[in-house]
Amino acid sequence: MAQGGILGSASIPFFGCVVLLLAMVLHILAFAFPDWATDSEGKFGLWRVGNNYCGAKSAYSEACRRYRDYWTDFDWFLAVRALECLTIIFWAFPLVILPVYIYVALGLYYRCMMVLMACFTFLGAACNIIGVVIFGIEVEESSDLSLRWCLPMCAVAGCIGLLAFIAYFLAVLKRPKFEHQQHFLSGFYVDPYKNRMYVVETTDPPADVAVVQPNDGVISPEQVNPAMVYN
């Protein structure tokens, strides 16, 4: 079992997972709402548009309609859409995989997996921030448009995503210390420092059981023997 609180080696990944979940919620809200920019006719988002003529008995009475064709013709707008979609995809991987790891990490440590999750989190945050910068620059350069609250919310989500990346990066650098507990061998032995599992021949040690002291707290594969008890 790893030292360091109730969750042991999973404490830092758990914190990063909670932070990333908050970032994902804010990002999806900004992603879905039609409040990225506004002009004289209404407000606009990445996927929907709210018209100022809503409620009037006219062709523009719908509260939210699809974007007009001239919006979807802009390459920068399509790029922002793609980047924000990639953010959701990249962040989904850690949010799905890490809850499983948090359970497994009570006794194991997978550095390669944490590196991969940190990379996914960073890529998602980078796509988020790049999309926000592109949208903000294009809207500010237009005399007809002004920014609304979805853009700052999306930017905040990207910054929180970077905090989650920092947490995962610290989890990569900080290898947990595992307490060595005395136990009789079961059918399997897991070395937490080498991420390997060894199968032993029997679970019933003989009467004259030998005791093995680990070197520097680590039991080497050569020491794995079904007739030994590790202390």
Automatic annotation (TrEMBL):
Q: Transmembrane helix: is it a keyword of this entry?
A: yes
The record, for Gene3D superfamilies, names:
1.20.140.150
What are the protein's UniProt keywords? Membrane, Transmembrane, Transmembrane helix
List the transmembrane segments: 12-33, 76-103, 115-137, 149-173
UniProt name for this protein: Uncharacterized protein
Q: Name the species this protein comes from.
A: Elysia marginata
Q: What is the lineage of its organism?
A: Eukaryota, Metazoa, Spiralia, Lophotrochozoa, Mollusca
